[in-house]
């Protein structure tokens, strides 16, 4: 990632500003597991802090390890009691069922291309492109993913160069020069955004 950060800073003045101001971004990484998908579900349209709080309660309810079997044992009512919305509880139970029945084999995603992995992920109830992007970037560590549905990315880009990226097409066009390291560029923009909102 260090080489990619330096290359991006050379070719893009905006990313050069990020690097000079805050240094390289952290290597945010998550395990490629069922628990990571559950956390991604919890992070949809809420703050990271709120999602983490609910996930921590879930881990406690699961005896310290969030697995598909233990989530099934907690059940829909148990998930609701610890703070899951009705919709997110439904998504999580369905995901646990898919994993337990081997309709969704998370371990196989490592061998898939980005497009193949995305298709398998988005075929699951409640997991769309944003969820797939986060998993590809943070769990599978794919270098060229561009999560245009991510609000922090869009706000960070606008803050950096004053552009209007409310249209996905404009955001994608802005990120073209960052290939084949759009995941790394995204991390740099997140780094800027998170530092600036503290």
UniProtKB/TrEMBL annotation:
Keyword Disulfide bond among record annotations: no
Record domain HhH-GPD: where: 42-194
Keywords assigned by UniProt, alphabetized: DNA damage, DNA repair, Glycosidase, Hydrolase
SMART domains reported in the protein's UniProt record: ENDO3c
GO molecular function, one term: DNA-3-methyladenine glycosylase activity
GO biological process, one term: DNA alkylation repair
Highest taxon of source: Bacteria
Key word DNA damage present: yes
GO cellular component: a single term: cytoplasm
Gene3D superfamilies: 1.10.1670.40, Hypothetical protein, domain 2 (1.10.340.30)
EC code(s) of this entry: 3.2.2.21
Catalytic activity from the UniProt record: Hydrolysis of alkylated DNA, releasing 3-methyladenine, 3-methylguanine, 7-methylguanine and 7-methyladenine
PANTHER family: DNA-3-METHYLADENINE GLYCOSYLASE
Entry protein name: DNA-3-methyladenine glycosylase II
Species of provenance: Stieleria marina
Gene: alkA
């Amino acid at each position: 990632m260090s080489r990619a950060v330096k290359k991006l800073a050379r070719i893009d003045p905006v990313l050069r500003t990020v690097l000079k101001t805050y240094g390289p971004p952290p290597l945010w990484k998550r395990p490629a597991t069922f628990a990571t998908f559950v956390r991604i579900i919890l992070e949809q349209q809420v703050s990271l802090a709120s999602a983490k709080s609910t996930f921590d309660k879930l881990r406690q309810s699961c005896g310290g390890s969030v697995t598909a079997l233990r989530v099934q044992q907690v059940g829909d009512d148990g998930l609701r009691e610890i703070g899951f919305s009705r919709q997110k509880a439904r998504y999580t139970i369905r995901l646990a069922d898919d994993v337990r029945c081997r309709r969704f084999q998370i371990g196989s995603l490592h061998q898939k291309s980005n497009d193949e992995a995305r298709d398998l992920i988005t075929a699951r109830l409640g997991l769309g492109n944003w969820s797939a992007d986060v998993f590809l970037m943070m769990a599978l560590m794919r270098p060229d993913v561009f999560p245009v549905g991510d609000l922090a990315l869009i706000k960070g880009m606008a803050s950096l160069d004053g552009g209007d990226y409310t249209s996905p097409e404009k955001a994608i066009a802005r990120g073209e020069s960052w290939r084949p390291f759009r995941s790394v560029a995204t991390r740099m923009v997140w780094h800027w955004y998170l530092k600036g909102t503290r």
